Each structure stands twice: as structure tokens, then as C-alpha cells.
């Protein structure tokens, strides 16, 4: 699977394409992309909140679900917190497995992820 590098416009393939996709999933708000309005991180609503356990768990859950739904070529194994402060700054490393051919037998999930009142909700699109 190949794509276009968002910075240079050149062809992008392999793990660099997966890394770019993960970056776009985590940093894009829902509804921000023109042709893929449903793709994005509903957890951006949590930005600016205190770094409580509830907020950190919600953020990690949203990221895990987004990657499971929209990037089959990467399987998250664990999150390693590097730094979390009470102000809300969170720094963590995502450790996972690169699966270059996982998208070939993948069907798009019919789920929607949202954050409502700090709670992560997963519901059917239908």
C-alpha cells in the first residue's frame, strides 16, 4: 500500500506511510478532513484538561481504538508513559507491531468512537 507524503508530495510506502497515517489519525479532529469526515481523533476534546488518570485512560483508549479501526498495518501492543504532569501534558511512546500486509484481508469496521463528558463511547454507525 502506498500513498503521498503530506510534506513533499512524493510517493510514500512501507512503514513511513504507516507512521504518517498514525500521525494524521492522532492529530486530526473529527470532521476536519474533506473526503473522510468520519476519520479523526475525538479525543482532541480532552486537550487542555488536567492530567488525571481518567483523562489519560480516555486518551489512550481513543488512540488504541482509532488505530484498530483505521490502520490495520499497525497493531498497538502497549503504551509507555514517558512524562505526565497535572497540567495535562502527556508524553508517551506507542510500542506496536508493523504488519505490512494486514490491510489485504481487512474489512472496514462499522464503529464510531466519541468522547462525551470525558467518557469514551464506541457505538455502531447504523
Automatic annotation (TrEMBL):
This is IraD/Gp25-like domain-containing protein. It comes from Devosia riboflavina. It comes from the Bacteria.
Amino acid at each position: 500500500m502506498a500513498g503521498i507524503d503530506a510534506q513533499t508530495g512524493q510517493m510514500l510506502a512501507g512503514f513511513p506511510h504507516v507512521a504518517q497515517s498514525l500521525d494524521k489519525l492522532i492529530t486530526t479532529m473529527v470532521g476536519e478532513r474533506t473526503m473522510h469526515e468520519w476519520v479523526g481523533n475525538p479525543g482532541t476534546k480532552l486537550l487542555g484538561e488536567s492530567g488525571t488518570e481518567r483523562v489519560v485512560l480516555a486518551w489512550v483508549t481513543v488512540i488504541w481504538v482509532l488505530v484498530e479501526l483505521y490502520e490495520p498495518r499497525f497493531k498497538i501492543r502497549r503504551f509507555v508513559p514517558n512524562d505526565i504532569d497535572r497540567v495535562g501534558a502527556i508524553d508517551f511512546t506507542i510500542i506496536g507491531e508493523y504488519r505490512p500486509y494486514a490491510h489485504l484481508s481487512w474489512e472496514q469496521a462499522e464503529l464510531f468512537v466519541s468522547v462525551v463528558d470525558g467518557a469514551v463511547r464506541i457505538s455502531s454507525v447504523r
